[in-house]
């Protein structure tokens, strides 16, 4: 069989906020159509509720603390993949694929030049978003550049891997329509969208106009993203590439709303994940309910191209599940999530089964990190805000899907708590989690110590 081309589309901060995931006021016809023509994972989770660690897992098949990215890769956060970590692009390149990087890249040190970044991650080139297509970080410009790159790739006598990253629906700091102290979703180029109403997520308190104004902005940003995705998918069709291209769409983590992004509650870890591969038989609008993790993407794609993942990879191939008839169908009992650094040090680890979530907190930080990037947030969570983390949290997701009632100290739930504590501890040991040896310091800490040591020398 001819190996398929691979087009991986990913975005910021989306969670599962799409029409095909049941959010009926979110206008996403192109992604809904992709799901209707492909395979949708209903219970897909990332490994971390922030962009760089989540993407490190997505593109290496390994947990963030194992891959070296326990915080953000840009500015003075400066986290980076360990030198021996191998990106998906590198492994596909070694297996005969021509590889192109376009748009957002957050899995490796951002201070590198585009050429250095491409070389480090295994891309043949980092594609510039050229002038004339709009501001280079906007989805419409990224989509136009992706279509232009498809023109180049069809002339190459190799299967291709094209990785396209969109900023939206991340909150956008440059927006002259925002009031002082608020960072919204629409920038200066996106309109709010309440044409189908406004869907208030179950974990957010509906406090009237303020809440609905912000969520209309979010829906507008998601609609804008969907239009750009539709532009790229149309570009595939126009070049007769649809049939032999495996399309993957996903996001890094949950929505940038309170108690979602930057938390290990489900709204922070849940992700949209859609795949369509006509030549592989991955079509027809199938919906899979098994627990899957982003670490499973790399081994899945390597199996598709006939390669064997390293024993260091933590994920498992989903091809048996996608093929359905394969007797090797994987069946995950649990997924694991983590957070170490984002705006500040807030180390947490969790294990989630189909019925329960257990979280261990390693500092007495506030109940959740505010992901609104605003001094004056417009939305607030429905759950009571605890002043500080308890050491352990346990939730019965069957009766408490919003994770509001902590059962960790309830004697009746002690047996399940103890089992999950042991499972989490075992996972941390097996993956060499540095938290077991004490506090983790950041690259900025090392820079600060270096500045002190160099003074007067």
Automatic annotation (TrEMBL):
CDD domains: SGSH
GO MF term list: metal ion binding; sulfuric ester hydrolase activity
InterPro entries: Alkaline_phosphatase_core_sf (IPR017850), Sulfatase_N (IPR000917)
Keyword Secreted applies: no
A GO cellular component entry from the record: cytoplasm
Keywords: Hydrolase, Metal-binding
Protein name, UniProt field: Sulfatase
Species: Ruania alkalisoli
Lineage: Bacteria, Bacillati, Actinomycetota, Actinomycetes, Micrococcales
